[in-house]
């Protein structure tokens, strides 16, 4: 599989990253190297093998959907780069 | 006078309880050592005022005969991946360089409740991605073990390189680390300290900046097996904020350190001895096997047939999970923002500026293996091979009590060597540690010998899931080997 100029642009856009061309080429080269190396996984017979999603010793549990804290808006907003009246502020999205 | 910065935690607790030393003395000695060793760049943030206040409070508790935590008065450091309330937590990244968490991670809270004194936050690879601490936004940490010319040119390993260097150099008595694919065990080997990656689900991940959630696990790093056991006892346990943590009682690990390993079966997997295995590492491994034989253990050859696939499986799964976990850093909630004309442009500018090259590379790879058309070929396939790796361990542990393998393929490398390596070459440093991560089994890394140039080399003791009590039984035996280095 070749990870070409178009792929890197599409993937970078999906990940909301954007690089100058020179760096794009470097990443392309690196990722192609990594993908060539992971090709070896194709040797493995995985017929009938279920994907292993979690190695947690515990089954997923559901708890009651209850509010256990709150009233900490100021603390939470303290890390917002931009905020107005307790709301996060972002660039205009709707014209 | 007692050399306060070279004590083990167990020894210091003894002296504290006998009132021969105070926590303030112990803390001051470490703060002084930290100042002397700033050139190592082990700490990102030092918290001396809080440390001295906590130490004084501990001394007061002891003097008044109040209830004490199991580690009361012991100075420790936290990897800068653990959220600490009111204290900057950076994940060694630019994007979180100003982040001050409004809450405390479960594990650091538990250590606080045990009476420990936090000296500060130690360096790591950016978002724990790397095996050298070279990718930190706050600069490299130097390995306190000098090269043959007496210069500090070696990497401490990573990602918990700051933790390993600080423990090794006497800049704290123990430290938290985190291990996704070897990030506790490999730096422990490079710096000559002991570290445990517990069973996945033993410690809560709540409040630890996430890298790869199905692999990340918190663990202790210290100067002896007993010290790690003491720390892990306080760090482990069920947590309402992490549904993957086992709801099981935490055993008394130190009580299990009997030192008697007669009749225990130790597996030596042949796949860990490929052609071209570093001769010095092989020699130390053989020495470890001899130790165990002399102590009455039965050493048997075993096979973990899918070992060679662990590393590529690991990089696919870890990068996929990382690309998802790191999507939260969007310039809206986490302190840093680089403006753009549109919302998307602001996201792009913030993220591109805030992540280092290794982090970006892994996000790109992870996004790719999860993207439409490639998901099954890469991600699902990797998860299926992961099951085969897991099954290898399940099979092996039907016949053996523990597995002994090297912790890292080489002793500590120099920065120079590291700089010239391709990404795949640097990933190969995790070759001996990723299998246990993928299988979720516990593994302890401890120093066993020295290379020809006098650098520490560690071995891993891998146990079966949640049977730390059983496998720790023979670890006591190693305790006395710490004096080797």
Describe the structure.
The complex is a heterodimer of chains A (95) and B (485). Chain A is mainly alpha-helical. Chain A has helices spanning 5-14, 21-38, 73-77; strands spanning 83-84, 87-88. Chain A has a domain at 1-34. Chain A has a two-stranded antiparallel ribbon with strand order 1-2. The longest helix of chain A has 18 residues, at 21-38. Chain A is flat, with a radius of gyration of 23 Å. Chain B has a domain at 4-260 and 405-484: Amidase signature (AS) enzymes (Alpha-Beta Complex). Chain B has 17 helices and 11 strands. Chain B has helices at 9-17, 23-36, 48-63, 106-113, 161-169, 185-191, 225-235, 279-294, 310-325, 343-354, 357-369, 375-396, 415-419, 423-427, 434-439, 468-472, 476-479; strands at 43-46, 75-79, 117-122, 174-179, 194-197, 217-222, 265-269, 298-302, 402-406, 443-450, 456-462. Chain B has an 11-stranded mixed β-sheet with strand order 1-3-2-4-6-5-10-11-9-7-8, with helices on both faces. In chain B, a hairpin with a 5-residue loop joins strand 10 (443-450) and strand 11. In chain B, helix 9 packs across helix 11. The two termini of chain B are 22 Å apart.
Rg calc of chain B: 21 Å
Q: What characterizes the major β-sheet of chain B?
A: 11 strands, mixed
Low-confidence runs of at least 5 consecutive residues of chain A: none
The CATH topology of the domain at 4-260 and 405-484 in chain B corresponds to Amidase signature (AS) enzymes
Could you provide a short overview of the structure?
The complex is a heterodimer of chains A (95) and B (485). In chain A, 35% of the residues lie in helices and 4% in strands. By secondary structure, chain A is mainly alpha-helical.
């Amino acid at each position: 599989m070749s990870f070409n100029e178009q792929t890197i642009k599409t993937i970078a856009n999906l990940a909301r990253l954007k690089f100058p061309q020179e760096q794009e080429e470097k990443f392309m080269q690196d990722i192609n190297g990594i993908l060539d190396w992971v090709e070896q996984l194709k040797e493995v017979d995985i017929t009938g093998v279920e994907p292993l999603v979690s190695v947690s010793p515990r089954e997923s549990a559901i708890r009651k959907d209850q509010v256990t804290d709150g009233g900490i808006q100021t603390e939470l907003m303290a890390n917002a780069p931009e905020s107005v009246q307790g709301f996060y502020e972002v660039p205009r999205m709707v014209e | 006078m007692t050399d306060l910065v070279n004590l083990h935690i167990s020894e210091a607790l003894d002296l504290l309880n006998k009132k021969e030393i105070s926590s303030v003395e112990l803390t001051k000695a470490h703060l002084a050592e930290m100042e002397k060793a700033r050139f190592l760049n082990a700490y990102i943030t030092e918290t001396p005022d809080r440390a001295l206040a906590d130490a004084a409070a501990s001394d007061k508790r002891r003097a008044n005969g109040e209830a004490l935590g199991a580690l009361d008065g012991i100075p420790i450091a936290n990897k800068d991946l653990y959220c600490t309330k009111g204290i900057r937590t950076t994940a060694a990244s630019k994007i979180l360089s100003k982040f001050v968490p409004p809450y405390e991670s479960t594990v650091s809270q538990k250590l606080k409740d045990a009476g420990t004194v936090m000296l500060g936050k130690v360096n790591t690879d950016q978002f724990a991605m790397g095996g050298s601490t070279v990718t930190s936004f706050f600069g490299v940490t130097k390995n306190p073990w000098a090269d043959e010319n007496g210069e500090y040119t070696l990497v401490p390993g990573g990602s918990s390189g700051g933790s390993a260097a600080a423990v090794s150099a006497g800049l704290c008595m123990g430290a938290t680390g985190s291990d996704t694919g070897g990030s506790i065990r490999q730096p422990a080997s490079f710096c000559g300290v002991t570290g445990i990656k517990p069973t996945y689900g033993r410690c809560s991940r709540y409040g630890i900046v996430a890298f790869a959630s199905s692999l990340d696990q918190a663990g202790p790093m210290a100067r002896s097996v007993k010290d790690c056991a003491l720390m892990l006892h306080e760090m482990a346990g069920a947590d309402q904020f992490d549904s993957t943590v086992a709801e099981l009682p935490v055993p008394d690990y130190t009580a299990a350190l009997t030192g008697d390993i007669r009749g225990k079966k130790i597996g030596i997997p042949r796949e860990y001895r490929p052609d071209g295995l570093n001769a010095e590492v092989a020699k130390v491994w053989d020495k470890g096997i001899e130790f165990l034989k002399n102590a009455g253990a039965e050493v048997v050859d075993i096979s973990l047939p899918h070992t060679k696939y662990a590393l590529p499986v690991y990089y696919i799964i870890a990068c996929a999970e990382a690309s998802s976990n790191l999507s939260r850093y969007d310039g809206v909630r986490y302190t840093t923002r680089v403006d753009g004309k549109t919302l998307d442009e602001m996201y792009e500018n913030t993220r591109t500026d805030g992540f280092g090259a290794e982090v970006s590379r892994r996000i790109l790879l992870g996004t790719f293996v999860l993207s439409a058309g490639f998901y099954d070929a890469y991600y699902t396939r990797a998860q299926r091979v992961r099951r085969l790796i897991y099954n290898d361990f399940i099979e092996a542990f039907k016949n053996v009590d523990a597995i002994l393998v090297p912790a890292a393929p080489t002793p500590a490398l120099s920065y120079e060597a590291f700089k010239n390596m391709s990404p795949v070459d640097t990933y190969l440093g995790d070759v001996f540690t990723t299998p246990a991560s993928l299988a979720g089994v516990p593994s302890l890394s401890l120093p066993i010998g020295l290379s020809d140039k006098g650098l520490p080399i560690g071995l891993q003791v891998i146990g079966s899931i949640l049977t730390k009590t059983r496998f720790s039984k023979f670890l006591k035996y190693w305790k006395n080997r710490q004096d080797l280095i």
